[in-house]
Design goal:
With 241 residues, the chain is mainly beta. Helix content is 9%, strand content 42%. It contains 3 helices and 22 strands. It has a 6-stranded antiparallel sheet.
């Protein structure tokens, strides 16, 4: 499957980006994969993750938010033709699979570039060189965590969470294997960020639980000692000391 993002400002195509990496970052800082030099865009605004055949957009706590087809979102599984709005720029997602047609740009794509809402926090960020919050995050070392199977046939096995994302499920590409008829091939994903680890449910009939609470489509922050449960498998999350 070939996938890419087409970056536009109003009706002008600026560039195209092939999504051939596990993680593609979007933001105002030059080190981002997709660099958008605009004050309405946060330093680290959003990212796109490739998990198997799924391509997932995730907002990284941006000041002005991330929209897909005109609707604000924190996490969204991208479909061919989806239009992502970041500040006054748009990114059209194109997936070339089974000759699926690219959807025509929606009315929201042209409407969204007419309005830019800047909060007071964003104004303060504009007055600094890149924003104090971003500098603070960059200077904080990322912790390393592990999960350990505490039930099932793999009980006692430890998996280090070194990658930016770790898939959970019964699919061949999943690092954390969970068996079960109702378990999705990519049932969930653990993402590693400078702010910590987050877990998100993706697919399947078996619910994802953390400490007995069901986790939906919104990312949940993982804390030392949390118990992750899918089907009959339980794992303990812990920070490596």
């Amino acid at each position: 499957m070939s996938t890419k993002l087409i970056l536009k400002f109003k009706d002008t195509v600026i560039s195209e980006f092939e999504l051939n990496q596990e993680e593609t970052t979007i933001g105002r800082k030059p080190e981002n994969t997709i660099h958008i030099d605009n004050l309405a865009v946060s330093s680290k605004h959003a990212r796109v993750l490739k998990i198997g055949k799924k391509v997932i957009l995730e907002d990284l706590g941006s000041t002005n938010g991330t929209l897909v087809n005109g609707q604000e979102t924190s996490k969204h599984i991208l479909n061919n033709g989806d239009v992502i709005t970041v500040g006054k720029h748009t990114l059209t997602f194109v997936s070339l699979e089974e000759d699926s047609p690219v959807a025509a740009p929606s009315a929201e794509e042209s409407d969204m570039d007419k309005t830019m809402i800047i909060s007071s926090a964003a104004r303060e960020e504009m007055m600094t060189e890149g924003g104090g919050a971003a500098k603070s995050t960059a200077s904080t070392p990322m912790v390393l965590a592990k999960v350990q199977y505490i039930s099932g046939p793999l009980m006692g096995k430890v998996v280090e969470l070194k990658s930016s994302l770790t898939s959970i499920g019964k699919g061949d590409g999943c690092k954390i294997k969970v068996k079960g008829l109702l378990v999705g091939k990519q049932a969930a994903v653990i993402t590693r960020r400078p702010t910590g680890y987050h877990i998100t449910f993706l697919e399947g009939m078996s619910k994802l639980k953390v400490n007995g609470e069901v986790v939906g489509n919104s990312p949940r922050v993982l804390k030392d000692g949390d118990i992750i449960e899918i089907s009959d498998t339980k794992l303990e999350f812990f920070i490596k000391k």
